[in-house]
């Protein structure tokens, strides 16, 4: 999938490669911080127009991201011989305009669990970074 031309088992991904991975995955972790205390939530999400969308219900996640809209989002994939990780820094906002909600709803985002999740959240990226890892044995140290 990715070429590690210089033999380095860690490849820094460009924006397009990172977004390709985010678009192909539907789950990740949302990190919010209030009063210096971080909190992390597993979420499912959808991508539309290089923004992330998730649904949520009233509770800590919704309250915390409305108090401090600066968030981190991380998604990754682990296979038998390789892995990748993408981190997005962004600004979250609860959608309140019917046109925005309809556009987010059109992405087909469904809740994992059978609970009411009436709030759509959009994460506007500030930066995205990704890395791809090739697994292997630790090399011998030159003596």
Report what the structure shows.
With 143 residues, the protein is α+β, with helices and mostly antiparallel strands. It has one domain: Roll (Pnp Oxidase, Chain A). The protein is 17% helix and 47% strand. It has helices at 15-23, 60-67, 98-105; strands spanning 10-13, 27-34, 37-44, 46-48, 51-56, 70-78, 82-94, 119-134. Strands 1, 2, 3, 4, 5, 6, 7 and 8 form an 8-stranded antiparallel beta sheet that branches. 22% of the residues are buried.
Summarize the structure.
By secondary structure, the chain is of the alpha+beta class.
**Number of DSSP helices?**
3
Tell me the domain tally: 1
* Chain-averaged pLDDT: 91
User: Radius of gyration, Cα only, in angstroms?
Assistant: 17 Å
Report the major sheet: 8 strands, antiparallel
Please give the CATH class.
Mainly Beta
Q: Helix and strand layout, with pairings?
A:
Blueprint lengths: L9 E4 L1 H9 L3 E8 L2 E8 L1 E3 L2 E6 L3 H8 L2 E9 L3 E13 L3 H8 L13 E16 L9
Antiparallel strand pairs: 1-8, 2-3, 2-6, 4-5, 5-8, 6-7, 7-8
Q: Which descriptors apply to this entry?
A:
143 residues, alpha+beta, Pnp Oxidase, Chain A, 8-stranded antiparallel sheet, 3 helices, 8 strands, elongated
């Amino acid at each position: 999938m990715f070429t590690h031309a210089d033999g380095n088992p860690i490849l820094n991904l460009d924006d397009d490669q990172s977004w390709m991975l985010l678009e192909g995955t539907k789950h990740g972790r949302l990190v919010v911080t209030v009063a210096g205390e971080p909190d992390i939530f597993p979420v499912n999400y959808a991508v539309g127009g290089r923004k992330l969308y998730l649904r949520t219900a009233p509770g800590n996640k919704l309250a915390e991201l409305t108090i401090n809209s600066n968030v981190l989002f991380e998604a990754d994939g682990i296979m038998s011989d390789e892995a990748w990780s993408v981190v997005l820094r962004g600004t979250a906002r609860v959608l309140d305009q019917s046109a925005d909600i309809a556009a987010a709803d059109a992405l087909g985002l469904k809740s994992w669990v059978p609970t009411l999740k009436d709030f759509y959240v959009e994460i506007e990226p500030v930066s995205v970074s990704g890395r791809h890892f090739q697994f292997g044995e630790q090399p011998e140290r030159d003596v």
